[in-house]
Each structure stands twice: as C-alpha cells, then as structure tokens.
Amino acid sequence: MTKIIDNLKQINQQVTDAKRVSSFQQDVTVIAVTKAVSLARTQEALEAGILDLGENRPEGLVAKQQEITGATWHYIGTLQTRKVRQVINSIHYLHSLDRLSLATEINKRAEQRVKCFVQVNVSGEDSKHGLAANELIAFIKSLADMDKIEVVGLMTMAPLDAEEQQIRNVFRELKQLQQQVAALQLPFAPCKELSMGMSNDYTIAIEEGATYVRIGTALVGNESEEAK
Ligand SMILES: *Cc1c(COP(=O)(O)O)cnc(C)c1O
What we know:
Layout lengths: L3 H18 L7 E5 L5 H9 L4 E4 L2 H8 L6 E4 L8 H4 L5 E5 L2 H10 L4 E6 L16 H6 L7 E7 L8 H20 L9 E3 L6 H6 L4 E4 L7 H5 L1
Parallel strand pairs: 1-2, 1-8, 2-3, 3-4, 4-5, 5-6, 6-7
Pyridoxal-5'-phosphate binds next to strand 8.
C-alpha cells in the first residue's frame, strides 16, 4: 500500500484546487475513514497529521479508541438504537442521524450535547439510509426538545456509479437543504456543515460546498479488499 503521507499530499492538493472552484469559501476537514484498515494503519494516519478518524461499527470504534488518544472521532455508519449506549459518549460527531427513535435514544443516553449530522437520502435510492428531502424540515423541528442533540449539519452519500452531473446534483441539493435549515435559525440546529464526498467524489463535493469529506480507500486504503 502507498504511504498515507503520500496519499495525503495528493488529496490536500485536490482539496485546495476544489476549494478554489467552490463559491462558498468554506473550510474543509478531511476525515480518514479507517473502518477497513488495521490499528497500525490508523496510527500511520495520525502520524501523517490526520486527527479526524471515521468508523462505522461500534466494535471497530471501541477497539481503536482503546489504543489511540487525541483523535476526533466520527461515527459515520448506520447506528442501531440498541448500540447507542456503547458509542455515544465517546464520539465527537455522529454523521448518521436518520430517525426519531435514534434521536430519542441519544437524548436519553448522552451525557453531553452530541454534534449530529442529519443523513438525507437525496438521490432517493432504496439502498440508502437517510430521510427523504421532503421529510427533513419536519424531522429537524421535532428535535427541538432534545437538549442532547445539536444538528451541526447534513450528510449524504451520492449514488456509487453515477455520472458526474448526477453526483453534482445530489451534492447541490444537499447544500440547498442545508441553507434552508440554517435560515430557520433554530438554536439547536445551526446546520452550517455539510458532510459529503468520499474517495471517488470528494472533489465534486467540495466544489459544491462540503465542509467534511469522508475518505477511506484513497487515503488509508482498504486492507479487507486486498486480503481477498
Ligand atoms: C466507507 C465509507 C466512506 C469512505 O468510502 P471510500 O470510498 O473508501 O472513501 C465514507 N462514508 C461512509 C458513510 C462510509 O461508509
């Protein structure tokens, strides 16, 4: 596998170029998605200077947290309600708030306010988790009394093998939704951030306003694929 530091150099260059194209002048945080790599490879990411790490399973998160200190932890996958208790007080961001039952459980189990991205299924694909765009505003308003939840932004995943224009449209729509929510000026939902873009589409996402990109394969690789 290529060294993470070399991958990062290339990615940082792409991020800089994409930010120049974006009309939003946003800051962009690169999250290293380490779900498919070992602890050693995750430590290599930290040594390369990446402090934001993303995991999508409670087991993987907990295992890495036992060995790594000083990281900012992002939970990026579907979170089962019964597993909330296991992770909610050890993460900094949840990227997958997608239903009221999950919000209720977080509100019950969290000791402090949790920064959440509400996941939206912009493309409308059946296989994707997330709220439909037309359910979003009502959902966010329904969180008003949950004092442990802060909606920092929205998250989406673009269709995997779509044309560039189709991917761009998905990201553009999420940006518009984010602006609509922010305009409501709800104290519990500042909604300034956009979590969108993965290895194959992060430059498009940044051009359309992403502030957090979640990069696995292109940055740290995928050891489970290589083992196959
Ligand atoms: C795995 C995963 C990523 C990273 O995907 P790559 O294509 O490897 O960059 C990003 N976001 C979510 C939600 C994921 O599950």
